[in-house]
Amino acid sequence: MTHFNITAIGNAIVDVLAKVDETFISNNNLQKGGMTLIDEDQAEAIYSNMPPAIEKSGGSAANTVAGLVSLGGSAAFIGKVKNDQLGAIFTHDLKSLGVHYTTTPSQNGLSTARCLISVTSDAQRTMATFLGATKEITKNDIDEEIIENSQVIYLEGYLWDEQNAKDAMREAVRLALKHGREIALSLSDSFCVTRHRTEFLELIKNSVDIVFANEAEVTELFNNSNVIESAKELSKICKVAAITLGSQGSLIISDDGVYVIEAGKNLNVVDTTGAGDLYASGFLFGYTQGYSLDECGRIATIAASEIIQHMGARPEVSLADLK
Amino acid sequence: MTHFNITAIGNAIVDVLAKVDETFISNNNLQKGGMTLIDEDQAEAIYSNMPPAIEKSGGSAANTVAGLVSLGGSAAFIGKVKNDQLGAIFTHDLKSLGVHYTTTPSQNGLSTARCLISVTSDAQRTMATFLGATKEITKNDIDEEIIENSQVIYLEGYLWDEQNAKDAMREAVRLALKHGREIALSLSDSFCVTRHRTEFLELIKNSVDIVFANEAEVTELFNNSNVIESAKELSKICKVAAITLGSQGSLIISDDGVYVIEAGKNLNVVDTTGAGDLYASGFLFGYTQGYSLDECGRIATIAASEIIQHMGARPEVSLADLK
Prior knowledge:
The structure is a homodimer.
Chain A: E1 4-9, E2 13-19, H1 22-27, E3 35-38, H2 40-49, E4 54-57, H3 60-70, E5 75-78, H4 85-95, E6 100-101, E7 113-119, E8 125-130, H5 144-148, E9 150-156, H6 163-178, E10 182-186, H7 190-207, E11 210-214, H8 215-222, H9 227-236, E12 240-244, E13 250-254, E14 257-261, H10 275-288, H11 293-307
Parallel strand pairs in A: 1-5, 1-9, 2-7, 3-8, 5-6, 9-10, 10-11, 11-12
Antiparallel strand pairs in A: 2-4, 7-8, 12-13, 13-14
Helix pairs in contact in A: 3-10, 7-8, 8-9, 10-11
């Protein structure tokens, strides 16, 4: 089998993106800047209130592999769509990049997941996610041969919201440890951290090498509003802690030391959807090439800077040309 | 019933847009700059070769009503989707603009139409269209009350490619004439003109007030490579001939005289998809407000200039703010 720099396990989602007024967020009971889980009826109700939208493949970990491959890396993805039109779109958009994606689509039940993304004029994105077919993933979808042939297994924290998905993640962790592979985890969202704090801490301590978090997520994880203290706490229980700080840049902490990475400059920020996902793309590309952590942070910043300058969370140009 | 500035009858299509190399066009046997009709198997084959794409509602006449409403006008649309995910997207994107759209979706048969749009680095768009459910339209879908309450009935030339759709168009023409409404026609595509030259000429002579065409279409209609001569020929058989000339601007010819309209200046042209459709939006907005033909041309140019500066054929900002 081909060798992969990373295999990512995450929710297979098509994004529905629209520019909205601030009032849209409050009128639809959304948490600005956060991710709210919704059922199909809520999805219909919010969608019917949305302005005209565009559809673009998304999903946090799937965005990360799309970015990594655009940088020149190799990747596999594990996540569940239904055998429907949106599932075909999601599948096409990954496979056409050269991502190895063979998870069997579900034939019945809920439709392919979609994330309604409301982008306000401050470029902030607010998400409402109907998980749909992603809930059908089981540990049988975790292909041992793929895990064995990957340098790093990348886990999306969002998957902790569903028992089946959590079981699949635990299976991926078991297989990664069995084959001596490294494990990376994205904390995904501060509300997601609130929901799963204890399990995340236990998982990180026992199994995870690299953790990606933003300020809200890492402070929530340690219930400590000081981001530097929280980041240091995190670095004590994993190998590398990569903390994104929005327009302030990012921090990478490991036994080697603390690296302060500057943010991109002179950016025309349009939509922050996918900023964290693409930071992980760049970091993991550099990491799996054996680059220094400083260099990993530099490439991470380039990838994140591209994604926030247009609508949607998949690169619009070859990231390899930017690094 | 509400009064509408225009009612448009056209193919209900979701666009699948991707940036491609020139070789993609030849490798997939597409006519650069044109529109090729394809079946579902060909759509699958071409799509599988396409890079990652975005999905955005399209359809020539539907784009025109979206633009007209964005300018502040009122519109209805008649066109057929299937009751599937892409049909729901198309319907949402029109209704959320305030367009009156009540055509019953088909429940069985082919899926909602999609147009695979390949955008090359010269911003030219090449289209391959799977007509799908649009073929299910019949004359029963033409609502007399809507026609009666519309100032102008706008017909998309592309619909001449299917017998059912053509019958529906002829019914719309009959009802428009019965109620003394004006009729506008877009010639759509030069290959479409080749296929239907005789019928288009007959239709224009007998029923059409306003004709929209680009250089390739009007010269093809009269089999005369001189665009000025062809435009004058056209103006003899209708009330207003609006001829778009790409970066050269446009010509509007009527009994009142000939108006030469300058093209937009300092444009960052990204994707010409929808340029003609949005020209018609602006023209018909002005026309139904009773503006001078010169002013209609000016607004048409503003609308077309917005659409070619981003991917896709639906406005990304309120056009009312630009006029």
